[in-house]
Design a protein that fits this description.
8% strand, single chain, Outer membrane efflux proteins (OEP), 10 helices, four-stranded antiparallel beta sheet, alpha+beta
């Protein structure tokens, strides 16, 4: 005997869909598709439209931080959007930063987009769920059915799911801001490496020109029997050292410039330019603190979901088939209750305290990092000033020794030694000058003020 297959026409499918929606409204006591009107103790529990699902403002700004329909207003994302770069517009450093952002293709962007889509999906979890099914009866008939379920009371589980998805978006948004600020800092560091290498190579080139002149004088004095050959060897050794240092500086500059070009697809020339940073806005917290807040909110939402899973929930369901409909209200739990359930609930409740402590720890670490960076910046600025003053003094001493040598009061080796000291102090001044810039970039990076939030 061949099994009987019942064919359902499109018209009957439409009728079935209409019957399904009518049944949902009848079983759940819904008025339209929003406000709950449940009788008795179930009134107002879980059936209404959540505020964040129906009243979210859709932002028209373009970018990764834009909030889509269904997402509630996030203070963290609003903070990220409002952050502007401290780099002076149009400066060489700003051009490098813009190139780094324009050429960015980061996995954090995809993670943020995925989190936003998950949040949008969870924003509709208050709606009924539909489960189509097909079964084979003992008579060989294929029977199609649709199971419609609506959670009436779930101890806040679905609300916690929406909060978890929203916090997940915030975590991804902060992660993207951290990632792109670090990218901008990396690009600027490469640019500074190239500039520092060029400047040091130029200093070594000038030093070599002067040392070659000293070598010519010493060689003439050795040939004339006035000086010993050891003096010539000393001068030659110093020349070799300077040539090696110049080669290292040129290689460092070339490597930094090549890596920056590979990173941004652009080439940047020019010489040193002072770094001018704007004043950080009042109350600009470190990105690490914002990340701790977002992660803590997500952990709290997860704990509430776990707690709701251990408690009973009330669900109304209806099964619609061609032969008729049936409905029921059920009471069940995700996990069976046991003797350890109270302890589990207490452990879950501690998630909020743990999240608050992590935020406090992140805030303390941020304040310590800020204090440490400020001390380093002040120390390096002092060292830069001292290095500049020592280089100036060495330059004056060298001119004095040179004049005394011409007057026969100093030997050529005295002049060579004082000139070598001058070269070393000029190099130290260059290092101190760029170190001040690197510390300033590090401080701006931690606050998320290297990459403009609206352009991220």
């Amino acid at each position: 005997m061949q099994p009987k297959v019942r064919y359902r026409s499109p018209a009957s499918g439409l009728a079935m869909a209409g019957c399904r929606m009518a049944l949902v409204a009848a079983v759940l006591g819904l008025s339209g598709c929003g406000d709950a009107s449940l009788p008795g103790p179930l009134a107002g529990l879980g059936a209404g439209v959540p505020e964040e699902a129906g009243g979210a403002e859709v932002s028209r700004r373009e970018g990764n931080f834009v909030q889509s329909e269904g997402e509630g207003r996030s203070e963290i994302i609003a903070t990220l959007l409002a952050r502007d770069t401290l780099l002076q517009p149009g400066s060489p450093y700003d051009r490098v930063a813009q190139a780094a952002l324009t050429s960015s293709r980061r996995s954090a962007e995809a993670e943020l987009q995925a989190a936003r889509l998950r949040a949008e999906a969870k924003s509709k979890n208050w709606l009924p769920s539909l489960s189509p099914g097909v079964s084979l009866t003992h008579l060989g008939d294929l029977v199609a059915s649709i199971l419609v379920e609506q959670v009436l009371f779930d101890n806040g589980r679905r609300k916690a799911e929406r909060a978890f998805a929203a916090a997940d978006v915030e975590v991804a948004a902060v992660g993207l801001s951290v990632d792109l600020n670090e990218r901008v800092e990396t690009a600027l560091k490469l640019h500074i490496t190239a500039l520092r290498g060029d400047e040091k190579a130029a200093l070594h080139t000038r030093a070599l020109s002067r040392m070659y002149e000293f070598e010519r004088v010493v060689r003439g004095r050795v040939d004339g029997g006035v000086s010993d050959k050891a003096d010539l060897r000393v001068v030659t050794g110093k020349i070799n050292d300077i040539e090696g240092a110049r080669s290292s500086a040129e290689e460092a500059a070339a490597a930094g410039r090549a890596e920056l070009t590979a990173m941004t697809g652009e080439s940047f020339g020019g010489g040193f330019a002072p770094l001018v940073l704007g004043k950080p806005p009042a109350g600009a917290r470190h990105l690490s603190v914002l990340l701790a807040e977002a992660t803590g909110a997500r952990d709290v939402a997860q704990a509430k979901m776990d707690r709701a899973g251990l408690l009973p929930r009330v669900t109304a369901g209806a099964t619609v088939t061609e032969s008729g409909t049936s409905g029921a209200i059920t009471l069940d739990t995700d996990e069976p209750l046991g003797f350890g359930t109270p302890a589990t609930l207490k452990a879950i409740k501690l998630a909020e305290e743990s999240a608050a402590l992590r935020v406090a720890e992140a805030d303390e670490e941020a304040r310590r990092a800020t204090s440490r960076q400020e001390q380093r910046l002040a120390s390096n600025r002092r060292q830069e000033a001292e290095a500049a003053d020592l280089a100036r003094q060495s330059r004056e001493t060298f001119r004095l020794f040179q004049a005394q040598f011409r007057a026969g009061q100093r030997s050529i080796m005295d002049v060579v030694s004082i000139y070598e000291q001058l070269v070393q102090r000029e190099q130290a001044h260059v290092d101190a000058k760029y170190q001040v810039i690197l510390i300033q970039l590090e401080m701006a990076r931690d606050r998320g003020l290297l990459a403009e939030g609206a352009k991220i």
